[in-house]
Amino acid sequence: MAEDGIVLPSGKKWKHPIFVFFKDIRSALMMDSLGKEILTIAVPAAMALAADPIASLIDTAFIGRIGPVEIAAVGVSIAIFNQVSKVAIFPLVSITTSFVAEEETVERMNNEAIKLQSPKKNPTNTEEKKELTQDDVKLEELEKGLPEKEERKELATKDDSKESPCKHMHVADNNSNKSKLKKQKRNIPSASTALFFGAILGLLETLLLVLLAKPFLSLMGVKPGSPMLIPAHKYLTLRSLGAPAVLLSLAMQGVFRGFKDTKTPLYATVAGDVANIILDPILIFACNMGVSGAAIAHVLSQYLISTILLVKLMHQVDLLPPSVKALQFNRFLKNGFLLLFKVIAATICVTLAASLAARLGARPMAAFQICLQVWLTSSLLADGLAVAGQAIIASSFAEKNFEKATAAAARVLQMGFVMGLGLALLVGLGLHFGSGVFTRDINVRHIITIGVPFVAGTQPINSIAFVFDGVNFGASDFAYSAYSMILVAIGSIGSLTILYKSGGFVGIWVALSIFMGLRAIAGIWRMGTGTGPWSFLRN
User: Does residue 98 contact residue 476 with C-beta atoms inside 8 Å?
Assistant: First the structure.
């Protein structure tokens, strides 16, 4: 890994793992093969990830026209629904992407091994050699042990006049086999496991939210007698009916990400969110359903998304595994519980922040909700790079191509930091001058301007923190991700409690900034010290 070192003026190289973050830094934004592969995955993934929060922002804009009480109530309900969903699905999606990427890579390598044993891999003359594809030539060379250019030349120019009478028959048979392979569905057991857990968790989430809606709202500061209670309860109860669709669609998105296909989830998500945007004004205003109309519109859009994804997935993957053992329940559950602890730790921090904001009153909560939605929406764009990094790194580790894994990790982190700087400027200006889009209340808009420096200023830190999640998941470093997040949460909860009492609205945002900063440091520490799956960086 000498190329990972930093060259000093003396010509000596520093090869400490920390310098891997500066690997090929001048090429961070170049469109070489790696850059194109990352963007091909990341751009559609980011658009799909941002689509749902954008739809929630549009919901917020429509509901904001009703009044500050309603927007605050919906803000609390959305926070509860999103956090419960995140606890249920985030571990499943993250594990699914890594496992599917590994299984798809292994299946592809097995298919290539089968090709090596095909009769076509024994050409008898120059003409037949030309019929081989470039990939077949590489595989043939690996098998025959002829890596040198000179040996390839000799083989290509060799005068072999004894043409095999079965040559054309072999080619025809091979083409027929290739045609069958194209039509054959993929055998990816992890896809079936993901759908199973997604359906079960979705039903459990619906029951949990319907039965415990009022206790959850009470924990968030919406007590009996509060004007926010009735609209919040209506919205949360109706929105919970869409939980099975939400979890199934996200599980299927994890499968497609493992295939490095982020365009299909994008098309499905956009179709559902367009339906949501169309239905919002109809149900909220034309049908005079208020917050209930917004919830129903969102639920219908989620079922549309899950239906589209399921149809597409059934065309590509055999969802009936050969045996129950192939589903690898133990592997999913073991790593799933690790990430569950990670998500719970992160969820507690964000939920506590929203709960403390609700205790400040309807207007501060409304302003906090708007700032939080913008904060999360813009930050989720970095998740596109995280998805790309996870898929590429997981495939590279399965191939034991550690050089590509290192290059991909460094590149997505560098791109994430640059994107964070751009988002800081965009979000700062947009939220400062565009807060009137979300509310007409002057007091709410004034409070929003107080939160702008924190929402905008933390974007580079947020981007790095989110991208590091993808890097760690790609390396299947689930245990470190979980334990480090628990330590981060302990420090963040303490800062939230102290700063809320002393700084109110500003104190909450300072604590959230500390929370994201600690997450970024945890990611830098793991890879920068060359420990765990990155121990090869010290060699």
Answer: yes
Give every residue of the chain whose pLDDT is below 70, as ranges.
Answer: 1-15, 52-53, 118-183, 322, 378-379
* Tokens, residue 509: 């945002």
3-class secondary-structure state, position 371: helix
Separation between Cα atoms, residue 61 and residue 208, nearest integer Å: 28
**Residues with Cβ < 8 Å from 318, sequence gap 6 or more?**
185, 186, 187, 188
Distance CA 392, CA 405 (A): 7
Q: Among all chains, which residue has been given the structure tokens 């550690």?
A: 402
* CA–CA gap between residue 515 and residue 453 (Å, rounded): 16
Contact 241, 299 (CB under 8 A): yes
Q: What is the maximal distance between C-alpha atoms in the chain?
A: 94
What count of other Cβ atoms lies within 10 Å of the Cβ of residue 179? 10
SS3 317: strand
Q: What is the pLDDT of residues 88-101, one digit of tens each?
A: 777 888 899 999 99
* Token representation of residue 104: 């798809």
- Tokens representing 94 are 């993250």
Q: How far is CA 291 from CA 81, 288, 471, in A?
A: 15, 9, 39
3-state secondary structure of 202: helix
pLDDT of residue 120: 52
In single-letter form, the type of residue at position 212 comes to L
Taking the chain, what is the end-to-end CA distance rounded to the nearest angstrom?
A: 7
DSSP run (H or E) holding 7: strand 6-7
Beta carbons of 369 and 439 less than 8 angstroms apart: no
Pure H helices in 212-290: 213-219, 229-240, 243-258, 263-281
Q: 171 is written with which tokens?
A: 């080619």
Which amino acid belongs to residue 62? F
Contacts 24+ apart (CB under 8 A), 138-146: 139/112, 139/115, 140/116, 142/116, 143/116
Alpha-carbon distance 74 to 70, whole Å?
6
Question: What is the rounded CA–CA span in Å between residue 460 and residue 382?
Answer: 10
pLDDT at 286: 93
Spatial contact of 239 and 301, defined as CB atoms under 8 Å apart? no
Alpha-carbon gap, residue 164 to 156, rounded angstroms: 16
What is the torsional sign of CA 109, 114, 120, 126? positive
**Residue 239 contacts residue 76 (beta carbons within 8 Å):** no
**Could you tell me the two tokens for 150?**
């000179």
Give the CA angle between residues 260, 265, 266 to the nearest 5°.
Answer: 105
The predicted-structure confidence for 391-433, as pLDDT tens digits, reads as follows 999 999 999 999 999 999 999 999 999 999 999 998 888 877 8
Tokens 């917020």 belong to which residue?
Answer: 60
DSSP-based three-state secondary structure for 520: helix
Which tokens is 125 given? 């003359």
93 neighbors 114 (Cβ within 8 angstroms): no
Q: Considering Cα of 422, then 425, then 428, then 433, what sign does the dihedral take?
A: negative
Separation between Cα atoms, residue 163 and residue 175, nearest integer Å = 20
pLDDT of 264: 96
The pair phi, psi for residue 361, each rounded to 5°, is 125, 175
Phi, psi of 403 (to 5 degrees): -65, -45
Between CA 492 and CA 484 the distance in angstroms is 12
Alpha-carbon distance of 342 to 326, in angstroms, equals 27
